Task: structure prediction
Amino acid sequence: MSLMYVVRESLSGFNRAKFAALSSIMTIMISLLFLGIFYVIADNTSRLVGSIRERVEMEAFLDEPAPKAKIADVERALTALDGVDHVEFVSKEAAAKIFREEFGEDIMSVLDVNPLPPSFKIFLKPEYRNTVKAEELHERILAIDGVQSDIFRKDMLQFIEKQSRALSLGGLGLGILIAISAIILVSNTIRLAIDAKRRSVQTMKLVGASRWFIRSPFILEGVIQGLLGGMLAALLMYYLLTFVTGMISGELAEFLRAELSFYGLMTLAGTALGLLGSLISVRRFISDAVAG
Amino acid sequence: MINFSHVSVSFRGQPVLADVSFHVNPGEFVSLVGETAAGKTTILRLMYFDLRPDQGEVSVGTYTSSLFRKKDVHLLRRTLGIVFQDFRLLEDRTVYENVAFALEVTGAPPSEIGQRVLRVISDVGLSHKRNNMPNELSGGELQRVVIARALVNSPKVLLADEPTGNLDPATSMEILQLLKAINGSGTAIVLASHNYDLVRRSESRILKLADGSIAEIDPQQL
Result:
């Protein structure tokens, strides 16, 4: 089969139905642009959530008095627990110093005594930085002899989890919806192309053109539409991000960055949408029967 | 060449062909006659595998309906030439392009296409009109283009479904002469027609369809 023929025929589809082809390209472009923006936000949010999770820690306060041997026992018990990455000891003096740094006053001068108990800051392994696992660990820490209490920011963890789940689910739902509408539009454009060429399709069947020969120009037409839509979306996305990050600065600008491969992926996604749309139409609207 | 063995076909519960058996030999000229809706077109559609029999078997060359895979239908059609009453030409292409189209879609080498197309257009007597568009041609000329398109792949059989249905008597005779000449060069022809005068002059073996059955008849019985 001549490649030139396939390319020529698929380009003739653009010529014949310029408006339909253009609207397919624009829909793919807008869909992908929308998805792209959403993806950049979701991706960067998940990175932000990850860095917040890294800071999730517990603090176990010890019974007083806490002799050195007892402190060593608790440290051993803590580090032996699954989920504990490492611990840091905070002595009564160090706690008083932290208090001074945070409140600007020396607790000794206010109360005459240092009521702050010694403690261990507990850093969690990544797989334990979620509400369920952290809660389990919390219970096991409390059961250790010599531990008076254990605190951790459960509410913060819960908030992060809830928000990131909502964002992922919302993004996925929206993404699927947009992708489906883009596929339907491409499929419709290809259907118009098939309708316009019904006679030549019939003739091709009569004279013995292979199934692939008849279908490939239509499939290529969808692929080209998808490719153009994807490329335009990637280009627009690049300029949009450059423009927005140029207007803001610092951490916020970092929040909106995208890798180069992301633009390639957008183009590829457009091509895939175009291919899917045209495959659907070709399968539905070109039968093997001459009369069909 | 073509063999129908106990073939039955129904449409929406109405039997069109009932237990029909016949054959067409290589190089033979066979005419199918019968009233409108007697099943002539159905028989031709069975021959180019646009339709499968409900019962029985159709063989065309090396292809058999019961063993046939739908995706291979193009291979069978490349061994046939098909001519229709309504021409089915592409209106946006010239005579030359319409004929060349049949070669392009079968993947013929581009270097061969020009020569083969010009030869077959000359065989049907349309060399001078090769650059004309279909809307600039008469009915007889249009049918010649269709015949040229059917012949350009050098088919073993030419199937013609009412090829003179839209033509005046004189032009119909010209088309018949062309078909006879094609048959003379070794191509088998199956002609479906209700133009009994034309069939009588075709000097072909005549098969008559009536009430779902087929029978061979003499020209005098028409």
